[in-house]
Amino acid sequence: MSHDDIEWRVSDGLQPYAETLAAMEARATAIRAEGARELVWLLEHPPLYTAGTSADPAELVVPDRFPVHTAGRGGRYTYHGPGQRVGYLMLDLDKRGRDVRRFVHALEAWLIATLGELGVAAHVAPGRVGIWVDQADGDRGGEAKVGAIGVRVRRWVTLHGFSINIDPDLTHFGGIVPCGLADFGVTSLARLGTVSDMKQFDDALRNRFDSFLSALVTVPQRA
Predict the structure, then answer these.
(1) Distance of alpha carbon 32 from its chain centroid, rounded?
(2) What residue spans of 57-195 are helical by DSSP H?
(3) Integer Cα distance of 26 and 123 in angstroms
(4) Could you tell me which of 29, 39, 185, 189 has the fewest CB atoms within 10 Å of its CB?
């Protein structure tokens, strides 16, 4: 099954979070109930914080800085805002092996390969979620987080996905402890001196999508 079977949607402007979440959940329901097309949805949000299922209220450092939304995904607090590419994935794991761990590992590898195409050497770190790079300014542990991953699977359809910091206002992360990791900083592709153009990232992401799908198990569908 190729990416031609999956809808790609790139939304311009800043998409309101509550409405986006409702649309994502409706599409996931339709994929399972009606056989709707799977969807990769790329967008940006206005400044906001989201709380995952493991969010600790103590890690919301400035509660009244931006709106806070309950996300329903795994993980803790994270930030979304202009200059950050958010990708929501509504994929049917019934067709792809019903292996959530494999899906997450393939997602990590997809983002790392995408960043590699843009000249950024990214990696995952044992015991820490997300996508990491060598810290640009050399402090706070020598590494910084450039991307977050938070997913949910409902009736074997995926929801939520990832965010990659292209060129956001990094001071906005100061209102939370991002993903509960107080000892590490956050960075962006612009700060790393590589990419500040959203389309350039999107194109690299699309180039690597077939490899991502190939890393999942395609289950033959009954006639």
Answers:
(1) 22
(2) 100-117
(3) 33
(4) 29
Domain limits, the chain: 3-214
Q: Tokens standing for 126?
A: 């044992």
Residue with the larger pLDDT of the pair 69 and 54: 69
Q: What is the token pair recorded at 142?
A: 């020598």
CA–CA separation, 157 and 153 (whole Å):
5
* 133, two tokens: 């790079």
Q: pLDDT digit string (tens) for 89-126? A: 999 999 998 999 999 999 999 999 999 999 999 999 98
Q: Which of 90, 179, 189, 198 is catalytic?
A: 179
Nearest residue to 172 via CA among 67, 75, 71: 67
Active site residue 183: no
Query: How far is the first Cα of the chain from the last one, in angstroms, to the nearest whole number?
Result: 15
pLDDT digits (tens, 9 = 90+) for 144-184: 999 999 999 999 999 999 999 999 999 999 888 775 566 67
**Is the full-model pTM beyond 0.85?**
yes
- State both tokens at 156: 């074997």
* Cβ neighbours of 157 (radius 10 Å): 23
